[in-house]
Specification:
- The protein has one domain.
- Helix 1 packs across helix 2.
- It starts with a helix and ends in a 16-residue tail after the last helix.
- Helices cover 37% and strands 5% of the residues.
- By secondary structure, it is mostly helical.
Length: 78
């Protein structure tokens, strides 16, 4: 996270500074299919969809062969 993420969070509707900063950093990283959190209530009215750990694991398993769900450092070699 960058200092700008905390500045954004301080001026946002997030009640928790760290949650807002994490959201700002995630949104600045590019296209997201969802955010994983154990407390969806901490992220009111956000996009992309919020997923709990079980939902994220299910989504990952459903797309296990897709490079889109594998980090750059872990891509399979051809």
């Amino acid at each position: 996270m960058e200092r700008s993420d905390f500045a954004w969070s301080a001026n946002s509707g997030f009640l928790d500074l760290e949650d807002g900063a994490q959201y700002s950093a995630a949104m600045g990283s590019g296209r997201l299919d969802g955010l994983v959190t154990n407390n969806k209530a901490d992220f009111p009215n956000v996009s992309p969809p919020l997923l709990d750990a079980a939902e994220a694991l299910h989504a990952f398993k459903a797309h296990a062969g897709s490079a889109r769900y594998v980090s750059k450092g872990q891509r399979r070699k051809k």
